[in-house]
TrEMBL record:
HIT domain: residues covered: 23-133
GO molecular function: catalytic activity; nucleotide binding
Keyword Nucleotide-binding: yes
Transmembrane region(s): none
Organism: Halococcus dombrowskii
Database matches in Pfam families: HIT
Top-level lineage group: Archaea
Keywords: Nucleotide-binding
Lineage: Archaea, Methanobacteriati, Methanobacteriota, Stenosarchaea group, Halobacteria
Classification via Gene3D superfamilies: HIT-like
Name this protein carries in UniProt: HIT domain-containing protein
Length: 176
């Protein structure tokens, strides 16, 4: 696979460790939502930008409670996860204007997810023609926007929705 120079990624590589434990459990407990890439929070879930995105705006909607078994989610957690997914799709539409989106979960070891013991739903914006020869032929992925810029677009789009509270421009929005 070829390499593309991406100097903005060094901040992620050199971030404070917390290598022990589940990152989906550790990140929401920090007091730095922007640094953790958390763009929105609700009662039972949060929306996190993927640090290895398939496309700009690739987000994950994640329940706070650590479980890898979908059937273990309570009704309240299921509803909140779905509502936050709906709001994430709205924010992606308003902030990035894609032509469509893919959503889904990788459940269990064999499903291909890198973190299989903490549920998370991927929300991937798609644009007409976004799959080109680079990933298909050359095994190279091109990301056209820096993750900090994507954070700004989605943070503003979440904040424009009804039922949202923004305490600090650098923190995640809170769904009320």
């Amino acid at each position: 696979m070829d390499e593309l120079f991406a100097p903005w990624r060094i901040d992620w590589v050199e971030r404070d460790g917390d290598a022990d434990g589940c990152p989906f459990c550790v990140l929401p407990d920090r007091d730095a939502d922007r640094d953790s890439r958390i763009v929105a929070r609700s009662e039972h879930a949060f929306c996190l930008l993927n640090n290895a995105p398939y496309n700009p705006g690739h987000a994950m909607v994640i329940p706070y409670r650590h479980t890898g078994v979908y059937g273990e989610l309570t009704e309240a957690e299921l509803l909140d996860l779905s509502r936050l997914t709906q709001r994430t799709l709205r924010a992606i539409e308003a902030g990035l204007g894609p032509d469509g989106a893919n959503t889904g979960m990788n459940l269990g070891d064999s499903a291909g997810g890198s973190i299989d013991d903490h549920l998370h739903r991927h929300v991937v914006p798609r644009w007409n023609g976004d799959t080109n020869f680079m990933p298909v032929i050359d095994e190279t992925q091109v990301i056209v926007e820096a993750i900090d810029d994507t954070y700004d677009h989605l943070h503003a789009a979440f904040a424009d929705q009804e039922g949202i509270r923004v305490d600090d421009p650098d923190d995640a929005v809170h769904i009320v």
